[in-house]
Amino acid sequence: MSSIISVSNLTKTYASGFKALNGINLDIQRGEIFALLGPNGAGKTTLISIICGIANLSEGKVLVGGHDINADYRAARSLIGLVPQELHTDAFESVWATVSFSRGLFGKSKNPAHIEKVLKDLSLWDKKDNKIITLSGGMKRRVMIAKALSHEPQILFLDEPTAGVDVELRKGMWEVVRQLRDTGVTVILTTHYIDEAEEMADRIGVINKGEIILVEQKAKLMQKLGRKQLKLHLQDRLTALPATLAPYQLELADSGKELIFTYDTQSERTGITTLLSDLRDAGIRFRDLSTTQSSLEDIFVNLVRTGA
User: Fold this and answer.
1) Which strands, in side-by-side order, build the sheet including 155-159?
2) How far apart are CA 176 and CA 141, in angstroms?
3) In this predicted structure, what is the pLDDT of residue 166?
4) Which CATH architecture has domain 226-306?
5) Phi-psi region of 61 (alpha: psi -120 to 50; beta: other; left: phi over 0)
6) Percent of the chain at pLDDT exceeding 90
7) pLDDT of 26-42, one tens digit each?
8) pLDDT tens digits for range 213-235
9) Looking at the DSSP assignment, which residues form a beta bridge with residue 82?
10) Could you check whether 3-79+154-222 and 226-306 share the same CATH topology?
11) Domain range 3-79+154-222, its CATH number among 3.20.20.370, 3.40.50.300, 3.40.50.2300, 2.40.50.100
């Protein structure tokens, strides 16, 4: 799969001396959904702003569809649709008028059939004559996506696309994003909702303190960094663990009613068999057990904490 966005040695330093981005190297593949995760202030929005031509880079190079964002700005920008985090629309215009106007800003000729398709895909067709001011927050965000798609871009940036959107509309928007990907649109999203990235992304990048600390296929990331927990529900409450069990680094939970053993899924030996044997020898009995897999949120928090 070829890259549609290529970022090389990108650095952004402000006049104050603050370095918002430091040596970013990133390739985003054509036709994928790429999720960019990071805490507040990590550099997510700065990176998107530079790729979209809203902010200037200090050093490095960015290619969009093979076009340099500085030397060939118009060609690069025409390939991009951007949905910013903040809602900016002409409140007293109709949905149809504001989406059609956005298409004209890119020098595209009128195409009512395309505007109609975009509005129908985003469940906005029945609102086409409504003024923006009358719409709910979730519908206004859909209008922002419609505006970004009005000029038929190959790349769509979604900066916190479901912020302030209820659960039902979030799931509907996820489906819209998948459909866009299926038509060949490359989607890059930033999100604070870890479940959003886990649900939709093909690949995940983690940015922290202006540096990319990891880029990985979602499934491989979960497999590589995910850990499992074995939870043992004890027959009798424990107040302390025998010294013989210290090597397992067990955790007592639920007021001594549960034992939790965390193990690496990639190890040749998980240690579960010997643990159960040692528990039996120590006279500790359990009535039930269960296992849980680390979520993407657990992995993300651990990555940011360790900076690894």
Assistant:
1) 80-83, 155-159, 186-190, 33-37, 203-208, 211-217
2) 13
3) 66
4) 2-Layer Sandwich (3.30)
5) beta
6) 39
7) 999 999 999 998 877 88
8) 889 888 777 666 666 788 889 98
9) 157
10) no
11) 3.40.50.300
> Which pair of tokens denotes residue 224?
């590589």
pLDDT digits (tens, 9 = 90+) for 244-268: 888 888 888 888 898 888 877 666 6
Position 57 pLDDT exceeds 90:
yes
| 230 and 244 Cβ atoms separated by less than 8 Å | no
Alpha helices in 52-184, H assignment, sequence order? 73-78, 95-105, 112-121, 137-149, 167-182
Cα→Cα distances 103→69, 73, 78, 151, 158, Å: 20, 18, 11, 5, 18
For the chain, the domains span 3-79+154-222, 92-153, 226-306
Backbone conformation region of residue 66, classed left if phi is above 0, alpha if psi is from -120 to 50, else beta: left
What integer is the mean pLDDT of 172-198? 82
Residue with tokens 């053993």: 261
Rounded to the nearest 5°, which phi and psi values hold at 39? -70, 170
Q: Distance of CA 275 to CAs 137, 237, 266, 270, Å?
A: 53, 18, 18, 9
Report residue 160 as tokens: 């916190």
